[in-house]
Design goal:
With 187 residues, the chain is mainly α. The protein has 5 helices and 2 strands.
């Protein structure tokens, strides 16, 4: 018999939370900041995926990205010293290759990039740039965490590639929506 999970637990009322494995840490712990920022990023990915101008192929890729972001969150939320009964999902090189292949697919349809461009042009493009910048912040926080705790190197590589993906996606959606890319310093 399955029991419904309660949303509230009251265990965090004193400013602490549990890592997977049971270790209690302050809610301001760098690991919590890291996976909380990934959660923020994942919410923006959902916003991109749900936008009416998001095509089916991009929507499918964004759903996969959301799944991988949850995987990275679970890595950061796991106490590396704890014995875990349930296997935590993994990232693989082919997950990074998917991002690279998607960037190559989109780039083949775009004009070559010769200048820096300003974020914007269409609301969907702006959402891509927000996702890109939150992804970059996530990567910085995870790098900071890696100075004190073990962090999966594929997770870091994935986040690095993911921000490039969002930049490419912004250019792709600019093209798909017929919007103008505004070049920096050419106003």
């Amino acid at each position: 018999m399955s029991h419904e999970m309660k949303i509230y637990t009251r265990t965090g009322d004193q400013g602490q939370t549990s890592l997977i494995g049971g270790t209690r840490v302050p809610k301001y712990d760098d690991r919590i900041e890291a996976y909380g920022t990934i959660d923020e990023l994942n919410s923006f990915v959902g916003l991109l995926r749900d936008h009416e101008n998001c095509d089916a192929e991009s929507r499918k890729t964004l759903m996969i990205i959301q799944d991988k972001l949850f995987t990275i969150e679970s890595h950061l939320a796991t106490d590396s010293q704890a014995v875990i009964a349930k296997k935590i999902p993994e990232l693989f090189d082919h997950d990074i290759a998917l991002l690279e292949n998607e960037m190559d697919r989109m780039t083949a349809q775009l004009e070559p990039l010769m200048n820096f461009i300003l974020p914007g042009g269409h609301i969907l493009v702006s959402f891509c740039h927000i996702a890109r910048t939150v992804c970059r912040r996530t990567e910085r926080i995870c790098l900071k965490v890696s100075e004190k705790y073990p962090v999966n190197q594929l997770d870091l590589k994935y986040l690095n590639r993911l921000s490039d993906y969002f930049f490419t996606l912004s250019r792709y959606f600019n093209m798909k929506t017929g919007s103008i890319e505004t070049k920096w310093n050419e106003l």
